[in-house]
Every structure is written in structure tokens, then in C-alpha cells.
């Protein structure tokens, strides 16, 4: 999967057409809303087109230019919200933040996003402006439903350090630790991450404590002998 906003031109049907969806992999159309303008970064709004929300992605297609369209996967949307603050944007809209593959120091600022050369791989913001603002709540709910259908995948490294355990796992882990402790009381300390330094330190402290106790007993015996 490619992160970020991308061009979308795969249409089916006559006229303006509809987006081609990957039905073989379970992609379904969840919502269709005509009369939606899209704002890419800080650029001027595109002329209104039709917004298609599928179970996998958000697609905007121009009604006047069949070669113009944009799409972004839900996995690339780090945030979506309803914006009704005129100071943030003049028209009520859905505001979305987009994750990109570009490094932070390579991401284009507001001036670059407003230039004539549009690099979609560096666009981090998008606004969807419906001609009827009363549609915003419904659109937001659809976005939420589809975001839940696309949870962020957990890679193998994260799974190795996963701190969420089931009750059975906790019981098994506790029983194993108790067994290890019964065999060697110093072995279960600091052993979970493969680091024995803590266990060694505790063992040394125990030895030093014993030596200190022996020294106190010798001092006490010596004092008793003087009396």
C-alpha cells in the first residue's frame, strides 16, 4: 500500500463514470455524495465533483474532467474531523490529515502546496466541502465506520513487545516465574529482557549484607569480651 494522496482515474460506466472498486478483495461502496469540492493542501478548491466512500478508501472524482480524481486509503488518514470554524476555513467541511511516505523535512509547507506544481506525495491535508453542509454529520459517521474497518496493522516487531496479555497468558507467565524463583531466587529479577545485570547486582548486595551482618556480630562479640 502506498501512503498518501494519489491520482485516481479508474472509472467505469458512461458519462462521468464511477470509480472502479476492488470487489474481489471485498471493497464495497459505503456512501456516495455529489456536489463536493475538494481542497488539496492550501490550494484553491477544485470545482465540485462526486465523493465516493468505500470500505477501503475515499475517492473524489471531477464531474467535468474524467481524467481528474483523487483517492486516499483510510490507513493513510491519521485524523478526520468536522470543521465549522470560519477562522479555520470559510466553509463547513470535513478536514483530514494524511500520512505520507515523505520525511518530515521533505514535506512541503503551505507555500509549496499552493504552488502550481502539485506533488501529491507530500500533501498532508485535505478538505471535503459539500454544497449542503447538513450532510457533514452523516459523512463524518461514515468516515468513522470505515476507519474502524481498517485498523492499523501491527508489525512483527510490535507484536514481540506487545504488553497486552490475556488472563491465561498472565497465569502461565506467573507460574513460570514462580518456578524459576523457587530454583534460584536471583534468577527471576531482570531476566525478562535477557539482562542479568540487575540480578547480579541484587546478588552482590545480598552478599555484602551478609558480610555486614557478620562484621556486626564480630564487633558485638569483641565488645562483650571486654566487659
Task: Label this structure with key terms.
elongated; alpha+beta; 5 helices; two-stranded antiparallel sheet; 227 residues; eight-stranded antiparallel beta sheet
Give a count of the beta strands, DSSP E runs of length 2 or more. Answer: 10
Unreliably modeled segments: 107-114, 186-196
CA-based shape: elongated
- Specify the structural class: alpha+beta
What share of residues is helical? 25-40%
How do the strands line up in the largest sheet? Answer: 1-7-6-5-4-10-9-8
What Rg do the Cα atoms give? 31 Å
Which band does the percent of strand residues land in? 15-25%
Straight-line N-to-C gap: 87 Å
The multimeric state of the shown protein is single chain
Mean pLDDT: 78
Total number of helices: 5
**How would a textbook summarize the main sheet?**
8 strands, antiparallel
What order do the SSEs take from the amino end to the carboxyl end, as H and E?
Answer: EEEEEEEEEHEHHHH
Note down, in words, how this protein is organized.
The structure is a single chain. The protein has 227 residues and is α+β, with helices and mostly antiparallel strands. It contains 5 helices and 10 strands; from the N terminus they run βββββββββαβαααα. It has helices spanning 110-113, 136-148, 156-160, 167-183, 197-226; strands at residues 6-7, 11-12, 18-19, 29-40, 49-54, 57-62, 69-73, 77-83, 93-98, 125-130. A hairpin with a 2-residue loop joins strand 5 and strand 6. The longest helix has 30 residues, at 197-226. The chain is elongated, with a radius of gyration of 31 Å. Residues 107-114 and 186-196 have low confidence and may be disordered.
Amino acid at each position: 500500500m502506498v501512503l498518501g494522496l494519489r491520482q485516481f482515474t479508474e472509472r467505469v460506466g458512461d458519462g462521468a463514470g464511477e470509480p472502479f472498486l476492488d470487489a474481489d478483495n471485498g471493497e464495497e461502496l459505503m456512501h456516495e455524495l455529489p456536489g463536493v469540492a475538494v481542497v488539496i493542501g492550501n490550494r484553491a478548491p477544485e470545482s465540485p465533483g462526486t465523493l465516493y466512500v468505500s470500505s477501503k478508501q475515499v475517492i473524489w472524482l471531477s464531474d467535468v474532467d474524467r481524467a481528474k480524481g483523487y483517492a486516499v486509503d483510510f490507513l493513510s488518514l491519521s485524523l478526520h474531523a468536522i470543521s465549522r470554524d470560519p477562522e479555520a476555513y470559510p466553509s463547513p467541511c470535513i478536514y483530514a490529515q494524511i500520512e505520507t511516505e515523505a520525511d518530515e523535512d521533505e514535506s512541503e509547507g503551505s507555500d509549496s502546496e499552493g504552488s502550481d506544481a502539485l506533488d501529491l506525495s507530500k500533501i498532508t491535508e485535505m478538505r471535503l466541502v459539500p454544497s449542503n453542509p447538513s450532510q457533514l454529520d452523516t459523512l463524518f459517521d461514515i468516515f468513522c465506520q470505515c476507519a474502524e474497518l481498517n485498523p492499523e496493522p501491527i508489525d512483527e516487531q510490535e507484536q514481540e513487545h506487545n504488553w497486552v496479555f490475556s488472563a491465561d497468558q498472565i497465569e502461565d507467565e506467573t507460574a513460570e516465574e514462580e518456578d524459576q524463583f523457587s530454583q534460584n531466587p536471583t534468577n527471576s529479577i531482570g531476566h525478562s529482557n535477557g539482562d542479568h545485570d540487575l540480578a547480579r547486582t541484587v546478588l552482590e548486595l545480598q552478599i555484602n549484607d551478609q558480610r555486614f551482618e557478620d562484621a556486626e556480630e564480630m564487633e558485638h562479640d569483641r565488645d562483650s569480651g571486654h566487659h
